Amino acid sequence: MPELRTDDGPRKLRAVWLGPKGATLPFEWTYVQWAVTLLMIPLGIGLIAGAIAVGGLLITGRVPWFAFWFGLIYGAPAAVYGAVRLMRGVSFDEPLRHKITTARDELGSRGRERAETPIHWQLPWPAMAELSPGAKKLLGDDSSVLTGATRRTDAVQTPRR
Q1: What confidence score (pLDDT) does residue 51 get?
Q2: How many angstroms separate the CA atoms of 57 and 54, rounded?
Q3: How many angstroms separate the Cα of 89 from the Cα of each of 58, 84, 86, 94, 95?
Q4: Would 48 disulfide with which of 71, 109, 142, 143, CB 3.0-4.6 Å?
Q5: Residue 81 and residue 95: Cα distance in Å, rounded?
Q6: C-beta separation of 93 from 105 below 8 A
Q7: The predicted structure's pLDDT at residue 71
Q8: The model's pTM
Q9: How far is CA 139 from the centre of its chain?
Q10: CB 36 within 8 A of CB 87
């Protein structure tokens, strides 16, 4: 077993596998990234092949012969892409376990409990007053719309001067 030399402290050890000796890969993935990617590939193949199989079964009444090959050709790269996108945000500060727990809490059926009870603000409506005689003169006789009166009897009319 090779000795791991790292600048990080013992808690922040980032074990990286670059590939076999003499033929290293041009990118650095941790063992967790490798594991997630390798576990996602069969899942992607199964999902794409299953979708093609169900679609073919619904449309033609039988499973298409190319469902597995279509899943292999398109499902594996899609799974690798999804795994790389998933692992892009994973770091020592936010490990994969944290991301999974956060996603489960956000998308799960359990609702969050509020730290405080919600405050229901209720503001009083401003009092509706009768328009001044000058404003009534400018607006004309039908000023009930502006005073909030719904019926003609609700509007208070003052004699014109």
Answers
A1: 93
A2: 5
A3: 38, 9, 7, 8, 9
A4: 71
A5: 19
A6: no
A7: 92
A8: 0.51
A9: 52
A10: yes
Helices (H), the chain: 31-60, 67-70, 76-87, 96-107, 133-139, 144-147
Between CA 50 and CA 48 the distance in angstroms is: 5
- Contact yes or no for 30/12 (Cβ under 8 A): no
State the DSSP string of 87-123.
HTT--SSS-HHHHHHHHHHHHSSPPPPPSSPPP---P
Q: Which amino acid is at 39?
A: L
- Taking the alpha carbons at both ends of the chain, their separation in whole angstroms is 105
Tokens of 1: 């077993």
pLDDT at 143: 47
Dig out the tokens for 104 from the structure.
């489960």
User: Which residues does 143 contact at the CB level (< 8 Å), separation at least 6?
Assistant: 131, 135, 136, 155
- Burial zone of 142 (CB within 10 Å; 0-12 exposed, 13-18 middle, 19+ buried): exposed
Stretches in the chain below the pLDDT threshold 50? 8, 11, 143, 150-155
Domain chopping of the chain, boundaries: 10-107, 129-161
